[in-house]
Design brief:
Helix content: 55-70%
Strand content: under 5%
Order of helices and strands: HHHHHHHHHH
């Protein structure tokens, strides 16, 4: 009886304990699950931080190369090449007329050492025997003019000056317009001299081969190249002024009893006249390329050759 009563009393207590246990179990499991979830989140966040730190560390290292890498991958230093300047031709700094003057001096000093082919540049390739045609120097033979030869010289000179002055006056090329009425013109003076000689009883000959050849060459050249023609233009007047005075004095003393021809007279200061032409040609030459100037230097040798052949008529 007592055992039955004890059992009956204990059963409700056991039931209450069971109920309490059932109610506490879900709470305990949920707290356990939540704890596990929190731990996993913390672990995931720590792993993510580690990954970010690792990646950031790798990126940082990629942007800061080590000294050894920069040394091996850097480009070699750039070495600037020195700018080489072309050697100027003699007289080039002054102008084309000064360059032609050096050509004339070379031709006058072929046998000397002061002016050589190399001193005029590699483009100056004219044969040195042109100098022998530029004057009356025949290896030391005395210069003896003849009246017949002097008349041929005057007639051929008149043909050349007529040709040059006609081309300059009649051409439509703008370059020629600057050289009209320079005061150096010789055609009218030569006409007066030949008329006076005719009155003295001398027979005036027809133009000879040197004058005809040169006049024809000038006419053809004036249509092809103004710079090359102007080279001849300048050298014709310059040669007559520079060398003509010596010829005039010797011929006047030997053949004309001291008479001075009109061919060797100018109105005004001839030095100033040729200076004005020189300055204009130098200004014009500033617009020429180096190749055109080199061809002008070659034409200068041709001009001296043609003029030398005409001068040599005096002693033939």
């Amino acid at each position: 009886m007592m055992s039955l009563l004890k059992t009956t009393v204990q059963q409700p207590l056991l039931l209450q304990q069971l109920q309490l246990q059932q109610h506490s179990m879900p709470m305990h499991s949920s707290s356990f699950i939540s704890t596990n979830t929190t731990n996993q989140k913390k672990k995931s966040m720590s792993n993510r931080r580690a990954l970010i730190l690792c990646c950031s560390g790798s990126n940082t290292s990629s942007y800061s190369p080590s000294p050894s890498i920069s040394t091996t991958t850097s480009a070699p230093p750039i070495i600037k090449r020195r700018k080489r300047y072309r050697r100027q031709y003699p007289g080039e700094s002054i102008g084309i007329t000064e360059e032609m003057r050096f050509v004339a001096m070379r031709l006058r000093n072929v046998k000397g050492k002061k002016y050589t082919k190399d001193s005029l540049g590699e483009d100056e390739e004219e044969d040195e025997n042109l100098a022998s045609d530029n004057d009356g120097d025949d290896g030391g033979v005395t210069w003896q003019p003849s009246m017949e030869g002097f008349l041929n010289y005057l007639v051929d000179s008149k043909l050349v000056f007529n040709t040059v002055e006609r081309i300059v006056d009649e051409s439509s090329h703008v370059a020629y317009a600057y050289f009209r009425k320079t005061g150096l013109e010789r055609s009218e003076a030569l006409e007066k001299d030949l008329e006076w000689l005719r009155q003295q009883g001398f027979v005036i000959p027809e133009p000879s081969s040197p004058g005809i050849s040169y006049a024809k060459y000038l006419g053809e050249l004036s249509e092809k190249s103004a710079p090359l023609f102007m080279c001849h233009f300048y050298n014709i007047y310059f040669s007559h002024i520079a060398g003509g005075q010596v010829i005039a004095r010797q011929v006047s003393e030997m053949l004309l009893e001291g008479r001075e021809l009109e061919f060797y007279k100018w109105e005004g200061n001839v030095a100033e006249l040729i200076k004005d032409v020189r300055e204009k040609l130098n200004m014009l030459g500033e617009h020429w390329c180096r190749d055109e100037k080199n061809r002008c230097l070659k034409e200068a040798t041709k001009a001296f050759r043609f003029l030398g052949q005409i001068v040599r008529l005096i002693i033939l």
